[in-house]
Specification:
By secondary structure, the chain is mainly beta. It has three helices and 18 strands.
Length: 219
C-alpha cells in the first residue's frame, strides 16, 4: 500500500510539472531587463533564450546571465511576474501584453476582429508596448512606443512612433514581417527582416527596428 501511495505521489508531481504552461507575454522588469515568451513555450530574458524550470505548484522560473524571472500563471488573467537582477535587487515586472496558453503549450490565435491595417488606421489597437528603433544608418537604438492591431495567427499591423513624432507602420503576415509603409520620400524603400530567437530584426529604408514576437502574437 505504501508503495502504491508513493507511486501515486510521484505521478501527481510529474503531472503538476507538465501542466505548468508558459503564457504568451511580454514584460518590462526594472531598468534594462525585458522578459517575454513565444508560442513554443520558450522564455527570453533581454532577447536571449533562458533556462526554464517548471515547478509542481505551477510557478515557472527562468534564468539567463544571472537574471531570474519568476512567472506565476493566473489562468485567463495576466500572470504575476517578478525578477531578481544580477545585483540581487528584486521587483515586480510590468506585463505589456499577455495571452493565456491553450493545450499543448501553444497560444491560441485571437479571433479575427477585422483587417488589422484597417483597425490600426482607426486607432483600434490590441496592445501598446516599447520597441527598439533607430532612425538612420549608424544611429543608436532607442526606445520607441508601439501599438499593435492583431488578426491572430501572427498577422498584425504594428505602428511605431519614432522619437521625432513620426510614425512607421510595419505589417506582419503569418508570423513574418513582410513590409512597411515606405515611400519615395523616405529615400529608400528597401525592406528586410530576419529573426533571432523571438526577436524580429527589421530594416525599413534607413531605419531599424527590434520587435519582440509577443507583441505580434500576444493578447
Amino acid at each position: 500500500m505504501n508503495k502504491r501511495l508513493l507511486l501515486a505521489a510521484v505521478a501527481a508531481f510529474a503531472t503538476g510539472a507538465a501542466s505548468a504552461e508558459v503564457p504568451l507575454f511580454a514584460a518590462q522588469c526594472g531598468a534594462g531587463i525585458t522578459a517575454d515568451s513565444n508560442p513554443k513555450g520558450q522564455v527570453y530574458i533581454n532577447g536571449k533564450v533562458a533556462r526554464v524550470t517548471k515547478r509542481p505548484d505551477g510557478q515557472i522560473s527562468a534564468n539567463s546571465a544571472g537574471v531570474w524571472v519568476d512567472i506565476t500563471p493566473q489562468g485567463e488573467r495576466a500572470p504575476r511576474i517578478t525578477y531578481t537582477a544580477r545585483d540581487k535587487t528584486t521587483g515586480e515586472c510590468e506585463v505589456l501584453s499577455f495571452k493565456a496558453p491553450s493545450g499543448g503549450g501553444h497560444a491560441s490565435s485571437a479571433p479575427s476582429r477585422g483587417d488589422s491595417s484597417e483597425r490600426a488606421g482607426r486607432g483600434d489597437f490590441d496592445a501598446h508596448g516599447p520597441v527598439q528603433c533607430a532612425e538612420g544608418a549608424g544611429a543608436p537604438m532607442v526606445q520607441c512606443n508601439a501599438a499593435v492591431a492583431r488578426e491572430g495567427g501572427g498577422t498584425a499591423t504594428v505602428v511605431v512612433t519614432r522619437p521625432d513624432g513620426r510614425k512607421r507602420v510595419i505589417f506582419f503576415k503569418r508570423g513574418k514581417a513582410v513590409s512597411a509603409d515606405l515611400s519615395q520620400a523616405d529615400g529608400s524603400q528597401r525592406f528586410r527582416a530576419t529573426k533571432r530567437g523571438d526577436l524580429y530584426l527589421i530594416q525599413a529604408g534607413r531605419e531599424r527596428y527590434e520587435i519582440v514576437e509577443a507583441l505580434v502574437y500576444g493578447g
